[in-house]
Amino acid sequence: MSSDLTTALIGAFRWNDPGQDFPHLVSDLSGWWRSPEILHALGPAMAGLFPDSDLTVVVAPEVTGFIVGPLVAVALEVGFVEAYKGGHSPVAEPMTWAHAAPDHKGRRLSLGVRTRQLRPGDRALIVDDWITTGAQSRALGEIVTACGAVPIGTAAIVAECTPEVTAELRVRSLLRAEQL
Ligand SMILES: O=P(O)(O)OC[C@H]1O[C@H](OP(=O)(O)OP(=O)(O)O)[C@H](O)[C@@H]1O
Ligand SMILES: Nc1ncnc2[nH]cnc12
After folding, report:
1. Residue 1 gets which letter from DSSP?
2. What is the CATH number of the domain that holds 125?
3. Distance 75 CA to ligand 1 centre (A)
4. What is the complex's ipTM, to 2 decimals?
5. 167 within some domain
6. Residue 167: how many CA atoms within 13 Å on its side-chain side?
7. Among all ligands shown, which has an atom nearest to the Cα of 106?
8. Which pTM was predicted?
9. Which residue CA neighbors atom 9 of ligand 2 most closely?
10. 45 with 51: CB under 8 angstroms?
């Protein structure tokens, strides 16, 4: 990845203090999407984390994955599959679901993908903005496998996960959280 993009990502990122009711700072990624230069460079840079991987599809979870995933899919010249979080409007067709372990907010989410959109033989890249526990990414890998496709790895903008999770989920990222 170019050092220009690293510098731009760090410069456009903010930790915001939401006030006394919240015990910790919250990340603000909006500067990344607001920058035409970053938005233009993100997809190719993340696609470049998995060169020569014969990928056929990108899978990403709502909601921020719906921004980042299509950027990477366009760069890879493959299609994009949305993964929904359970608990709101049902999707009126067969879905493949997986239950995630507690994620970085302590939530146990269900993630679901339209079954017909993943095909046996697909080589899927899981894409997300940030990986901490890896719970959501792991659940997406389970869905991909249940559909007969192959999870090749996880491409993220920021990785904050342990070396064990990095190895297990084959996480490659543009930044480590410590850089922000
Ligand atoms: O590695 P994990 O602990 O599973 O955390 C990673 C997930 O957490 C964030 O989503 P979140 O649902 O918090 O926010 P979003 O709706 O803005 O995407 C991020 O976009 C990843 O999807
Ligand atoms: N957007 C985010 N900010 C901080 N930590 C996270 N862990 C997963 N997603 C995150």
Report:
1. -
2. 3.40.50.2020
3. 22
4. 0.97
5. yes
6. 3
7. 1
8. 0.97
9. 130
10. no
